[in-house]
Amino acid sequence: MRQFIPADAIDLAAPSLPPHDGACLHLPQCAGRDWARQAIALVEADASRSADTHMITAGFTGLRGISVYLKDESTHPTGSLKHRLARSLILYGICNGLIGRNTTLVEASSGSTAVSEAYFARLLKLPFIAVMTRSTSCKKIEAIEGFGGKCHLVENAGDVYDAARRIAAETGGHYLDQFTFAERATDWRGNNIAESIFSQMRHEPDPVPQWVVMSAGTGGTSATIGRYIRYRNFSTRLCVVDVENSVFYDSYKSGDRKLVGTQSSRIEGIGRPRVEPSFVPEVIDHMLRVPDAASIAAMRVLARRFFPVGASTGANFLGLCWIASLMMEAGEEGSLVTLICDRGERYTDTYYSDDWLKARGLEIEPYEVALETFLDEGRFEKPLGGNGFSF
């Protein structure tokens, strides 16, 4: 029987090559590469089956000269903006050789990213474990488990990172780490949400938006949009909205990336107790910090006028309204774009529950009235125009 010597086991720097004496050399089979090619094909096929998300026009009588557009990311197969990020993180892991045929995928998440990652894990037949705070919406936990994932719950948001790293090490798995890799896993030059926004806007009366307004969770999407705006040399400016119990706004103002908070954000999906590595303040033109009650009020206003959305979308829309008010005050006109991050069905037992709001001392009615007045009449009254906002 002839002996086979794998070529990748030969040391060409050795004094002499192994004797042939009937042995047959052959190249390695690269079984891992074969799996990676199949996995990437599955992920790309899934993307091809999904049409781009819709851009909704929103007319408000009070916003004179201002056109509002809502990029509806809830139409992704997993129902949120995080579907794009999950796909990018999975591809990033495969292409860097970090994810293989039997790799357990682990993520630290406030919910939506984990839902999307669980979807892709099932597609690739890989185990998935999500590390989340115990306060995460039950609907999100059910969605993760529905895709075959498991949930590991911790008490504090600051504990998710170490717990995810520990579980990945114990299982020999891969920590996807959205908070570190979000801004580098996505190609900011094209084939991303920013390119989609500007492509869909090109036939509108004001095709180049004056502002894109959005909130930050990992900071990855704002980094992608900010970089793309600069790369394509658009005049568009980027405003990022932050929420209570988050350190992003304070870091942006002070330049201190080592800030650490002591509480968790009440608005799922956005706001963080530390400055995440994927947060890139240099590509942001302006930041706002808004009250949680006002974000939830804006969410409910949109629910009445369009359809139920989540509280992160409320924060986005609130920021857009504030930018619109300043534009009108300055006599400026043009288009504004923000994101619908997910639908409200996931929050029926939290943000859409009056009992849940009351238990947390969140009074939203004054903000609702102020927002409705602004959208219909174009003017803000307190409390929205008071000290609830930071600039």
Automatic annotation (TrEMBL):
Respond yes or no to whether keyword Cytoplasm is given for this record: yes
**The organism's place on the tree of life at top rank:** Bacteria
Q: Which GO terms describe its cellular component?
A: cytoplasm
| InterPro entries listed in its UniProt record | Cds1, Cys_Synth/Cystath_Beta-Synth, TrpB-like_PALP, TrpB-like_PALP_sf
Annotated EC: 4.4.1.1
Residues carrying N6-(pyridoxal phosphate)lysine: K82
What's this protein's name? L-cysteine desulfhydrase Cds1
Q: What does this protein do?
A: A cysteine desulfhydrase that generates hydrogen sulfide, H(2)S. The H(2)S produced by this enzyme stimulates respiration in M.tuberculosis, mediated primarily via cytochrome bd with a lesser contribution from cytochrome bc1/aa3. H(2)S modulates the balance between respiration and glycolysis, and also contributes to redox homeostasis. Probably eliminates toxic levels of Cys (which can induce oxidative stress).
- Give the catalytic activity: L-cysteine + H2O = hydrogen sulfide + pyruvate + NH4(+) + H(+)
Q: Listed GO molecular functions?
A: lyase activity; pyridoxal phosphate binding
SUPFAM superfamilies in the record, alphabetically? Tryptophan synthase beta subunit-like PLP-dependent enzymes
Q: Where in the cell is it found?
A: Cytoplasm
List the GO biological process terms: L-cysteine catabolic process to pyruvate
Biological source species: Breoghania corrubedonensis
UniProt entry keywords in alphabetical sequence: Cytoplasm, Lyase, Pyridoxal phosphate
The cofactor named in the record is: pyridoxal 5'-phosphate
**Record-annotated Tryptophan synthase beta chain-like PALP domain positions:** 61-342
Q: Name one Pfam family in it.
A: PALP
Is Cytoplasm one of the keywords?
Answer: yes
> Could you say which protein family the record assigns here?
Belongs to the cysteine synthase/cystathionine beta-synthase family. Cds1 subfamily.
